[in-house]
C-alpha cells in the first residue's frame, strides 16, 4: 500500500514542480521585456515580476521538487530491485539535470533581482523549452521502462527540438514585424494630429 501512496504523491510533486518551472522562466521573459518599457512602468513591472518569481520559486516550485524526490526515494524503498534497471539509471541522470536546471533558475532569479541578468527574452524562450524535453523523455522512460523504442524516441525528441526552435524563431520574427509596424504607425498618427 505504501508504494501507491508514494507513487501518487510523486506524480503530484512532479506536476507541481514542472508547472512551476514552466511558469518561472515565462516570468523571467516578461521581467526582461519589462526593461523595454518607459518609466515608471518599467520599475513597477520589474518589481511585480520579482515578487511573483520569488514566491513561485520558494512556495511552489521548490516544494514540488522536494516532494518529487522524497516520494521517489519512498518508491525505491518499497521495491529496491528497480535500482538495478538501466532505464531508472537514465531517468535518475535526467532528474539530476533537471535539479541542476531548477537551481540555475534560482540563480537567474537572483540576477534578475539585482538587474544583472544578461539573457535576452529570446534566449530565455529557448531555455524555457528544456524542461519540456526532459519531461517527455522522463515520462517515456517511466512508462516504457527497458522496452522504450530508442529509434522512435530519438526521432521524436529531435523532431520536438526542431519544432521548438522553429517556433521560437518564427515568434521572434513576428515580434520584430509587430514592433516595426507599431513604430511606423506612431509617426503617421503624429502627422495626422498636426494636420
Automatic annotation (TrEMBL):
Its cofactor is heme b. Its EC number is 1.3.99.-. Its main location: membrane. Pathway: Porphyrin-containing compound metabolism; protoporphyrin-IX biosynthesis; protoporphyrin-IX from protoporphyrinogen-IX: step 1/1. Keywords: Cell membrane, Heme, Iron, Membrane, Metal-binding, Oxidoreductase, Transmembrane, Transmembrane helix. It is an enzyme of class 1 (oxidoreductase). It comes from the Bacteria. Pfam families: UPF0093. Binds 1 heme b (iron(II)-protoporphyrin IX) group per subunit. Signal peptide: none annotated. InterPro entries: HemJ-like. Belongs to the HemJ family. Catalyzes the oxidation of protoporphyrinogen IX to protoporphyrin IX. Homodimer. NCBIfam families: protoporphyrinogen oxidase HemJ (TIGR00701). HAMAP family: HemJ. This is Protoporphyrinogen IX oxidase. It comes from Funiculus sociatus GB2-A5. The lineage of its organism: Bacteria, Bacillati, Cyanobacteriota, Cyanophyceae, Coleofasciculales.
